[in-house]
Amino acid sequence: MVDAQPPVTGPDGSALSRATSAMREQPDDAWPGLADDLLRRLRSVTRPGRTVLVDTAGHGDLRINDRVLVDALRRAITRVDGCRVVDIRTVVQRELLDEVLLAIAVEYGRDVRVVADRARGVTAATLHDLGTAACPVQVAVVDVIAAA
Amino acid sequence: MCSGRVVLVSAVLYRGRDGQAQDLVLARAAALGDRDAFEQIVRRHGPGMLAYARRVLPDRGDAEEAVQDAFVAAWRSLERFRGESSLRTWLFGLTSHKAVDIARRRRPSPVDAATVPEPAAGSSSDPWELASAAELVRALEHELQALPEGQRACWWLADLEGLSQAEIAEVLSLSPDAVRGLLFRARRTLQERMARWWTPNPR
């Protein structure tokens, strides 16, 4: 007489299959604590970037990392109706901002040119507020997105 | 006033609602400095990366360090992620490389099956179900640690994380043929060893 055994078979009849399923469902208790520590650490991680000279109207030199500039542009352009920022590239020559290249996606049904012009206008305004020199802003509409 | 021109490059209707498409949107936003988007990436992919790291590095602290280092590297270099592979594959690749770096720094030590972590209790109220699931997971952990590292990594990425063999090849910097061979051997070995754990005991 064989000892009664608990059911051990999985979808394909194997212990391995059952164990794999069980293992997949098993949460890792360490993750929540690690996630919090990790996100705290990431707040202090800086990203390498290029330096852009900013006009301070004679109050001395001010240089900003172009990552800061890109982040400011992203926040501003994200507020343009019907526009999603896909990419922002800066061309910097000898610490001067030479050009900004925008790649955007436009909501289906919108006038592409109107949205693109608004994105370019917001870019120009943001650059002016930051104190960078005026420069060309090239806009490429790289995608069409569904209306939100 | 800035001058400029508008160029229509493509007009592909964006239909993506699946995880991979969402990942691409998050990755693009995070690459431009959106920390909220990056936090979403961390929370989506971190558990899987940690589970993988814990199977390739015996020490829990080392596994957590590998995941932390992978995410720091991701944050600093996201603009280099162009979407040719999935974000998940890219992140697992970073984890794998960081795990290798850590393993090289540490003095090798034999794996102690007694250090394999206890599995968490399941949600079933059937005591037989609970005992068998926990026992099976413990058994599988034990057998996994006995596998060579390459087989263990391939098996985990394929059968727990669901990566394709091409994706695994990218994560581990191996050829697809190498992945195929490692996976075959891992599955065969685990199948044989797990079957032995449940041989009935006749009276």
Describe the structure.
The complex is a heterodimer of chains A (148) and B (203). By secondary structure, chain A is of the alpha+beta class. Chain A has helices at 15-25, 31-43, 66-78, 112-130, and strands at 51-54, 62-65, 83-93, 96-107, 137-145. The N and C termini of chain A lie far apart (66 Å). Chain B starts with 5 loop residues before the first strand and ends in a 7-residue tail after the last helix. The radius of gyration of chain B is 21 Å and the shape is globular. Chain B is an all-alpha fold and 203 residues long. Chain B is built from eight helices and two strands, in the order ββαααααααα. Chain B is 66% helix and 2% strand. The model of chain B is unreliable at 10-17, 118-122 and 199-203 (pLDDT under 50). The interface between A and B is large, with 69 and 67 residues. Strand 5 (137-145) of chain A pairs parallel with strand 2 (13-14) of chain B, so a sheet runs across the interface.
Q: What letter string, H or E per element, gives the SSE order of chain B? A: EEHHHHHHHH
Rg of chain A: 26 Å
Spatial order of the strands forming the largest sheet of chain A: 3-4-5
Helices of chain B, by number, come to: 8
Largest sheet of chain A: 3 strands, mixed
